[in-house]
Specification:
Elements (H helix, E strand, L loop, with lengths): L1 H11 L3 H12 L11 H33 L15 E4 L3 H12 L4 E5 L6 H7 L4 E3 L7 H4 L7 E4 L4 H14 L4 E5 L3 H14 L5 E4 L1 H14 L3 E7 L2 E9 L11 H4 L5 E7 L10 H7 L10 E2 L13 E7 H9 L8
Parallel strand pairs: 1-2, 1-4, 2-3, 4-5, 5-6
Antiparallel strand pairs: 7-8, 8-11, 9-10, 9-11
Helix pairs in contact: 1-2, 1-3, 4-5
Length: 338
């Protein structure tokens, strides 16, 4: 523009200010054509109009870029180029959103991959500026965009077992020692996948979990009331801790502690020595809150001798599998108290 203004000043003989003014008018195509002007003026005007046409897309792009800066707060963030040591979270549904919130609470960097642009977890990711890759993992380059080759772990938490398995297999092909945790609905299928991946990649950490399998103890505990004290997952199994009245259970009543032990089903861990009339109704509540009334102590003896004979008035704490506890409670000769 400066060169055009100088050329117009030298050829027309006018003042530099007037030459610059005419150049701007020609550049924005708002001046009258120089039909009666000298040839130099006509050439400069045509050249200036051409420059104006080339400059117009640049101005439009600048305006759009300025508008995009205002929308950057609501846009999804892309994974940085040098990102490494992060967790790739596949799926931002109900489970994925909760896991993402927990990862951020622990200060663990994460990159999310989601196929549905309307997933409920995208709002959380957008608000917390978590990098998100929108796309199907079956498409080439989606996991690469999430920097899977430099990731620390993969959490495949979609509601589709096949999608989670496909993502885990592809991620392992890219990085054989990648830590993988999959959400699989069918527990038998999850067991088979876990054993296969563990055998194929013995040096890597592999976990497969069924959400319904892990949630079952909570539902079982709610139905059984105060009997269930807690539940912990152990590999592919769930171990329940329950408070059981010995009376009415022929597998417990009148037997020694050693005789009541059923490998793979249940085992007596402790004995509540409180008098039947002074027992704490809910051992889990009393222990979790630390509140034990002086006149109703929950006196638990954990190191029971194998020769101790369980009596009908005893209450014991035992560890059992889900199937073992169901079998024990189902064989009771007396009806369960509500």
């Amino acid at each position: 523009m400066l060169a055009l203004a100088v050329s117009a000043w030298l050829t027309t003989g006018g003042s530099p200010l007037h030459a610059g003014y005419l150049t701007l008018l020609d550049l924005f195509a708002i001046d009258d054509p120089a039909i009666a002007g000298p040839p130099s003026r006509k050439v400069i005007q045509l050249f200036t109009g051409l420059i104006g046409l080339l400059l117009l897309p640049v101005l439009v792009a600048g305006v759009l870029e300025a508008l995009g800066a205002f929308r950057s707060a609501s846009a999804l963030r892309r994974p940085p180029r040098g990102l490494s040591g992060h967790v790739v979270l596949l799926g931002l549904g109900k489970v994925g959103a909760r896991v993402l919130a927990r990862l951020l609470e622990l200060g663990i960097p994460a990159v999310c991959v989601e196929n549905d642009p309307q997933a409920r977890g995208l709002t959380l990711a957008r608000r917390l500026h978590v990098p998100v890759v929108l796309g199907d993992i079956a498409q080439e380059g989606v996991l690469e965009a999430a920097r899977i080759h430099r990731a620390h772990a993969l959490l495949a938490l979609t509601s589709s077992d096949t999608t989670n398995l496909e993502a885990a297999l592809y991620a392992r092909s890219v990085k054989s020692d990648l830590r993988v945790s999959m959400r699989l609905y069918d527990d038998d299928f999850a067991t088979a996948v876990y054993r296969t991946l563990r055998a194929a990649h013995p040096d890597a950490v592999t976990r497969s979990r069924s959400v319904s399998h892990l949630a079952a103890p909570a539902f079982g505990g709610a139905m059984m009331g105060r009997q269930i004290l807690g539940a912990i997952p152990v590999e592919r199994k769930v171990l329940l801790f329950a408070a059981v009245e010995v009376g009415g259970h022929r597998e417990l009543e009148g037997r020694t502690v050693a005789e009541t032990f059923r490998p793979g089903s249940w085992r007596v861990l402790a004995l509540d020595t409180s008098a039947p009339g002074h027992r704490t109704p809910d051992l889990a509540t009393a222990r979790s809150t630390g509140y034990e009334p002086a006149d109703r102590p929950a006196d638990l003896v954990w190191e029971l001798p194998d020769s101790y004979i369980l009596q009908a008035q005893d209450r014991v704490v035992l560890a059992a599998t889900r199937r073992g506890l169901a079998e024990l409670l189902g064989r009771r000769s007396l009806p369960l108290r509500p």
